[in-house]
Each structure stands twice: as C-alpha cells, then as structure tokens.
Specification:
single chain; 146 residues; mainly alpha; Hypothetical protein af1432; 9 helices; 0% strand
C-alpha cells in the first residue's frame, strides 16, 4: 500500500538516523503527497503548516515535466535544498534502493534497476555532508546494486 513507503522513510530517519524533529518526521510522512495525490500546496499548508509544507515542496517533482527532465533536475537541485529537505531526500533514496533490492519491480530488467541505482547515487552525491550515518546507510544500500 501507498502508506508503507512514507512510514518506512520516517522510521528510517527516526530509528536509524536519530532524527527527533516532529516537523522533519512529518515532512517525511508527507513527502510524496503533492506528487501522488490531488492534495494542493495550500491544503497541505492549511493542515500541517508552512514549515512542513516548505520541506515537502523542496522534495516534490514537477509532474508537468517529462520524467527524464524531472530526474535530471533532482540531481541538479539536490545540493541546493535545505538541510531538512536533504535528510528527507536522502532517506527516500535509501528506502527506494532497499525496496529495489528486496522486491524489484517485476517488469524492470536488470539494466533498468542498475540505471536507477546509479541515478540515485548521482542525487545522493549532491547531498553529501548532510548526515554521515544516513550517507553510510545509502552506501550500504548502493553496494547491493544488481
């Protein structure tokens, strides 16, 4: 179910990253809301406040752009986002690689999975210096590249 991924992100940040900020953990739970639901920025801000919404918006892709452009922009923008958004982005990539390793999409050939791992590393390389322990977790997940 959809909710499993955001919960895993928040658990990773809390349990493995030592993050205690309720604002950051809330943003982790909501990080895909704008991209994956009909929720608007205004609705998110009304319900959860400006701080959480700002973090969510920093990690939200513009779905009106082609996928290849969105992926390139993630690499280009990763180094410029706030410290809190970097932690959410880093945790997202860790969870995605772990999921890819544990349960790869059935229709993804090995080359596509490798490309995903390599793209995620390009994003995370722009986040280096944000949180050493999370970066080590990413490196461990990346080491399982197919």
């Amino acid at each position: 179910p959809y909710i499993n991924h955001p919960i895993e992100l928040a658990k990773l940040l809390s349990n493995e990253g030592g993050i205690t900020s309720s604002e950051l953990l809330s943003a982790a739970l909501l990080h895909d809301t704008i991209e994956d639901t009909q929720t608007t920025r205004e609705e998110l801000q009304e319900q959860f406040g400006a701080g959480i919404t700002a973090i969510v918006m920093e990690v939200t892709d513009d779905k009106t752009l082609p996928k290849a452009v969105r992926k390139r922009l993630q690499i280009e923008h990763a180094g410029t986002i706030s410290a809190q958004a970097k932690l959410v982005k880093l945790a997202d990539k860790i969870c995605n690689l772990r999921d890819m390793d544990n349960s790869p999409p059935a229709k993804w050939p090995i080359e596509r999975r490798r490309e995903y791992f390599d793209w995620a590393k390009q994003v995370v390389d722009q986040l280096r210096g944000a949180h050493a322990a999370l970066e080590a977790l990413f490196d461990a997940a990346y080491a399982k590249r197919p």
